[in-house]
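Q: Structure for this?
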Amino acid sequence: MMELVLSLAIGILTASGVWLILRPRTFQVITGLCLLSYAVNLFIFSMGRLTLAQPPILPRGGLVNPELYADPLPQALVLTAIVISFATTALFLVVMMAARGLTGTDHVDGREPDA
Amino acid sequence: MPAPQHLIMAPILIPFITGALMLLYDERQRRAKLTLGIASTVALLAVSIELLNLAKGNRLPGDSDIGIYLLGDWQAPFGIVLVLDRMSAMMLVLVALLALPAMVYSAAAWHRQGQRFHALFQFLLMGLNGAFLTGDLFNLFVFFEVLLAASYGLLLHGGGQLRVRAGLHYIAINLAASLLFLIGVSLIYGITGTLNMAHLAVLIPALPTADLPLLHAGAAVLGLAFLVKAGIWPLSFWLPTTYMAGAAPVAAMFAIMTKVGVYVIIRLGLMLFGASAGVSAGLGAEVLVAGGMATIVFGLLGVLASQGLGRMAAHLVLISSGTLLAVTGFALAGGSTEMLAGGLFYMVSSTLAVAALFLLLEPMSREDGGIAAMLALTADAWGHEESEDEDPEAGLAIPATMTVLGLCFGACLLALAGLPPLSGFIGKFAILSAAIGTSGDIPAVTWGFMALLLLSGFATLVGLVRVGIQSFWGVDVTVPKVLALEIAPVIALVAMGIVMSVKAQDTMTYLSETAEALLNPLPYIETVATAPRVATGSGAP
C-alpha cells in the first residue's frame, strides 16, 4: 500500500511537471521544474527502500543488525538535492523576472508567437 | 603525510578560496580582483602541470600513475575519493591553460561590464576541476552544480535582452538535465548500493540478471544528462544561441564545458561498461556512434548555413563534440587504443582552437553591427559606471591590426579544419589511420564516420574561409582598434596548438598511455579499493 501511494505520487508529480515545462509561459515552466524536483526527491528517497519507524543512525559500538535500520545515504542525498534545486530554482526565478522586465512578455521565447 | 597526496586537493581549493576572498572586495576594486584571479590561475596551472608530471612519471604513491585522496580519511567505498590519473591530470592542465588567456582577455574590457565576474570565474574553475577529479557519482553531481551555477552567472554577465533570453533557456535545460542526473544516480544506487565509480565497476559484472534492465535504464538516464551537456544532436538546439550570447571570455571557457560531458561519458562508459563488464559490456555504444555522427552532420550544416562568425564557432563546438562522442562509441564497442588516443588529441586541439576563435570573434567583428550593438547595449545597462572610467586602463593598441588578426584567424582555421601543419591535422590523422588500420574488413559505419570526419573538415574550411574573405579582403574593411591585451591571449592559445604539433610525439605518447589506462581500468579500480587510510586502527569503529 505504502509503495503504491508513493509511486502514484511520484508519477502524478512527474506527469504534471513534464506537462508544465512544455508550456509556453515562464511561470508554468518554473512551476513544472519545481514539481519535477519534488518528484525526483521522493524518488531518491524511495531508493533507500521504504521502511517504517526505523532510525537511520547506528548506535555507538558493537555489532548491530542492519535490517533494523533505514539506509541513511539516500536521506543525505535528498537533503543535498533539495538545497541545490532550491538555490537553482531561485536563480531561475531571478532570470525569469529579468526576462519579463527586458522583453515585456512572459513567453519563453521573449516575444508573443503572433506578434 | 607525503606532500603529493595533498596536492591532489589543491586544484579545487585554490579557486575556491580565491573566489571566496574576492567576494569580500568591493566591485570597484577590480584591479585587486584581477590580480588575485591571475595569481590563482597561475598557481592552478603550476599545480596542474606538477600533477601531470607526477602521473606521467609514475611518481605518485606506490610508484603508480594514479593518485588517491581520501576525503576525511574514510576508506574508499564509504567515503568520497578524489582520483588523479592521466586523464584527469590532462583535463586539469587544459582548464588552466584556457582559464589564463580568458582571464587576461577579460581585463581588456569585459570584466567591467557587470558584477562579480572574477569570483564567478573562480567558482567555475573550482567546479570544472572538481568534476575532473572526483571518483564519486554524487560528488560529481555537486561539482556539476557548482560549475553550472557559476556558468549561469557568467552567461548573464553583461546583461542585455539577448543574454537574458539565452540564459533563460540554458538554465531551464540544465535544471531538467540535473533532474535526469539525479534519477540516474539514485537508480544506480538503488540497485548496487554504492556511488563510488570504481566500486560500481567491481559490482556491475556480478549483478543478478534480473537487476540488469533497471541498471541499464539508470545508466541510460544518467548518460542522457551528460549528453545534454555534451550537445549531442537532438539535445543540442540550445547550444549555438547560448554560446553566441556569452561574452567572449565566457564563451571561450564554455568551449571546455561540453568537454566535461564528453569526459564523464568517456570515463564512466569505459570503466563501468568496458570490455570487463560481462553482459553489460558496450552498453550504449551504438547510441554514441549514431548520435555523434548525427551531431557532426548537424554541426556541419550549421557551419555552412551560419551568417555570422559567432554562430559558426558554436557549430564548430558541436562538430568537435560529435566527433568525440562517435570516437567514444567506437572505443566502447571494442575500438583500438590508437583511435581513442587520436580522439583525445583532437579534443585538446579543438578545444584550444575553438576558444581562440571565440576570443578572436569580438575584435574581428567590432566594427560591424552585431556585436558592436550588443556592446553598446551592455554599456547602456551599466552606463553610469562606464562613464566614470572612460577607458583610463584601455592600454596599448597593436600595430598592423589586420595582419595579426588575419594570421591568428588563419591558424584557428587550419587547426579546426584539420589541415597540416597544425594540431587538428594530427588528431584527425590519428583517428583516421586507426579506423583504417583495423585488420580485416572495415565496417560500413566506420566508412561513414571517416567520410563525415573529412566532410566536416571541408565544411569548416568553406565556412571559415568565407568569413575570412569578408573580414580581411573586403573592399570597405574598417580596421578595428584592438588592444594588445585582447590579442595576446589569442596568440597564446594558437601557440599552444603549435607547441602541440611540434611536440606531437611526446603528446601522442602520453595520450596513448592515457587511452590504454581508460580502456583497461583495472589498475584504477584496484588502486581506489586498496587506498590506505592515513590514520590506521585509531578512533571509533
